[in-house]
Amino acid sequence: MTRLVLALMVAVFALPATASTEEAQLKGSDVMNQYLRTWQARTVMSPTQLVPRGSDETATQEVKWVLSKQYLEMTTIGELKDSRDMINYADGSYHRFNFTSEGDSSYWIGDWQDDRRTMVWKMDLGIISGLLTEHFLSINKKEVTLVLRDAAGNIIIQTQTTQSRTETQ
Question: Based on C-alpha coordinates, what's the Rg of the chain?
């Protein structure tokens, strides 16, 4: 009898936690679904001490669900470099792993701001920190701003990207 009561208590207390976890996962998936499909991007890099001449590049980005819909895979093919990002939602946070054709990698934590339709990604490696902001202007258009700073707070990379979905939803 004691085991039955204990089992019922565990079941009753576990249900709300499971439901709220499922709701959070659904919300995370809803946010991540906004990234899906193919995007055309134009990135303008402002001149900085690290990149004195700046640059202007176009790229194509394909975004799809992978690994049993646990991760979004973003493959970006650009004129100057390529990259691959893996994004997931776990433990109430968005996680982004970035790998480039130049051998660089980074890890970002994201915070979705529903009222602004904006994802704010932060990265801090001690010697370099970054802020990546993705503002969804509409279902098929977004603006992306990236600022990387050195340990002294100096801007070492600053870019502004406009992205348009080439496959409309």
Answer: 20
Record the pTM: 0.81
Q: What is the full DSSP assignment across 95-132?
A: EEEEEETTS-EEEEEEEEEGGGTEEEEEEE-SSEEEEE
Burial class (CB within 10 angstroms; exposed 0-12, middle 13-18, buried 19+) of 133: middle
Assigned token pair, 25: 């996962």
Task: Give backbone dihedrals phi and psi of 36, rounded to 5 degrees, phi first.
Answer: -60, 155
Is residue 120 within 8 Å of residue 110, measured between CB atoms?
yes
Pairing of strands 141-150, 155-165: antiparallel
Q: Taking phi first (over 0 means left), then psi (-120 to 50 degrees means alpha), and beta for anything else, what does residue 117 get?
A: left
pLDDT in tens, 105-161: 999 999 999 999 999 999 999 999 999 999 999 999 999 999 999 999 999 999 999
